[in-house]
């Protein structure tokens, strides 16, 4: 088989000399954004949506799924086109790819989850300018293969979404006694004198909750603590 044909076949199949698809390095692309390199708690990116859409768990889950789809797909597309994109217009290409995927997500939400679409409103559109998405295209997808770029997109999106869901879980539970709109704190707890903490439904409490998560994370993983 000629060298040209070998290169073509290796694009679709894993050759004997290639890195295993779930090697340690590839697994780290999925796991590092959950802890050591989390987009929100370590890189401090995407804070706006963490404050705005975490009053309830359902919008946070939908936003997470939307970002996972957009990041994974855009990483794969840019990785496929990376040798064809002129350096001068790469940002424009990023925006075109991301905005097309976001438009698709928005149309699907309008068709099948209109109430959630209205609740998320402009925040779905703002995925286009989300610095996490743009950053991964620039820093990773533009210089790596399709599989690694796909894993990187999934990992960073899930790391971002994990924090959204965690914050929304505590805000909705402590703020209204509900999860996914369903009451989970029994009535007898309220009869004993328990009251919902209305402050948890205010935007400042989202920032405080994220701060507490950062504190817990750095207490558990001391290597994330910056030296003076």
Task: Explain the overall architecture.
Helices cover 64% and strands 2% of the residues. By secondary structure, it is mainly alpha-helical. It has one domain. A two-stranded antiparallel sheet has the order 1-2. A hairpin with a 2-residue loop joins strand 1 and strand 2. The longest helix is centred in the last third of the chain and has 31 residues. It is globular and about 65 Å long. The N and C termini lie far apart (58 Å). The N terminus is likely disordered.
List the helices and strands and how they pair.
Layout: H1 3-12, H2 24-31, H3 47-52, H4 57-81, H5 90-112, H6 114-120, H7 122-125, H8 131-139, H9 146-176, E1 178-179, E2 182-183, H10 187-191, H11 203-220
Antiparallel strand pairs: 1-2
Report, as a whole number of angstroms, the end-to-end distance: 58 Å
Could you tell me the strand content as a percent range?
under 5%
- Could you give the order of strands across the largest sheet? 1-2
Summarize the amount of helix as a percent range.
Answer: 55-70%
Envelope shape: globular
Total strands: the figure is: 2
List the keywords.
228 residues, mainly alpha, two-stranded antiparallel sheet, 11 helices, 2% strand, globular
Short account of what is shown:
The chain has 228 residues and is an all-alpha fold. The chain has eleven helices and two strands.
């Amino acid at each position: 088989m000629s060298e040209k044909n070998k290169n073509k076949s290796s694009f679709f199949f894993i050759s004997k000399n290639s890195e295993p698809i779930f090697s340690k390095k590839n697994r780290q692309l999925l796991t590092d954004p959950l802890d050591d390199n989390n987009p929100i708690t370590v890189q401090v990116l995407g804070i706006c949506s963490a404050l705005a859409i975490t009053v309830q768990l359902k919008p946070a889950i939908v936003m997470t799924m939307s970002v996972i789809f957009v990041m994974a797909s855009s990483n794969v597309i840019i990785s496929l086109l990376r040798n064809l994109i002129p350096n001068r217009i790469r940002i424009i290409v990023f925006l075109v790819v991301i905005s097309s995927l976001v438009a698709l997500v928005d149309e699907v939400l309008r068709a099948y989850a209109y109430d959630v679409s209205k609740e998320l409103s402009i925040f779905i559109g703002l995925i286009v300018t989300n610095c996490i998405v743009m950053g991964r295209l620039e820093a990773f997808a533009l210089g790596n293969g399709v599989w690694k770029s796909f894993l990187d997109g999934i990992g960073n999106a899930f790391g971002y979404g994990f924090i959204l869901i965690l914050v929304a879980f505590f805000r909705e539970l402590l703020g209204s006694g509900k999860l996914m709109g369903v009451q989970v704190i029994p009535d007898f707890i309220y009869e004993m004198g328990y009251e919902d903490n209305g402050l948890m439904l205010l935007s400042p409490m989202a920032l405080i909750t994220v701060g507490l998560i950062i504190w817990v994370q750095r207490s558990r993983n001391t290597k994330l603590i910056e030296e003076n």
